[in-house]
Amino acid sequence: MGGLRCVDGSYLSVTPVACTDSVGTPYEVTLELHRDGAPYGSVGERCGWLLARLARGVDEARRGRGAARRWSDPDDRFPGEEPDSELFSFRYRTRAGLVGGGELRCQLRTIAVWQPALGEWRLMRRAYVEAWGATGAGLRAVLTSAELSLFIGQLVQEAERCLEGRDLARNPGLGAGMGDSR
């Protein structure tokens, strides 16, 4: 179970839960959200492959690959070319396609911080992970790329455990908008 301390002091727990096919075989995950231990929402059906891809992207960006190399501090390095972009957005959807019951999303933001000793502004990037429960109340955690890497990595490991060891990074079958993986 991954979790985050939010800016309001509450704790957001995120637990992957297996989605199963008609014969009970787990094939993907949904995320269950809890705020300070109380149920908060359910989001992101079939989101495991996206989390695995994001985990690899954050780790590569921290190593200075791609556009992330412009940022000298590894904590400011995130995947993607856009300075302020969305890394993920998971919502709850009913079988009829209606949205409601929770949301979990992550947006990058560039922040300018004045450094009086140097007499200059320092730009830094942070991931804003925001969650909304079924009641519409929101939570926010602000993370460095190292903290985001740890959080997403924990979710991927837990998802692979609840999928009976399947490696989400390989995604060996068809589905989730993927073509033939051979």
Overall structural domain count: 1
Taking Cα atoms only, what radius of gyration do you get, to the nearest Å? 17 Å
Helix content: 10-25%
The global form is: globular
Residue stretches low in confidence (pLDDT < 50, at least 5 long) are: 172-182
Count of distinct strands: 8
**Strand residues, percent:** 35-45%
Question: Largest sheet, if any?
Answer: 4 strands, antiparallel
User: By helix and strand content, what is the structural category?
Assistant: alpha+beta
Rounded to the nearest angstrom, the distance between the terminal CA atoms is: 32 Å
Number of helices: 2
* Major sheet strand order: 1-2-3-4
Spell out the helices and strands N to C. EEEEHEEEEH
Mean pLDDT: 87
Describe the structure.
The longest helix has 18 residues, at 145-162. The protein has helices spanning 48-62, 145-162, and strands at 2-5, 11-20, 26-35, 38-43, 86-93, 99-115, 120-132, 138-143. A four-stranded antiparallel β-sheet has the order 1-2-3-4. The chain has a four-stranded antiparallel β-sheet with strand order 5-6-7-8. It is globular. It has one domain. The chain is 18% helix and 41% strand. Helix 1 (48-62) packs antiparallel against helix 2 (145-162). With 182 residues, it is α+β, with helices and mostly antiparallel strands.
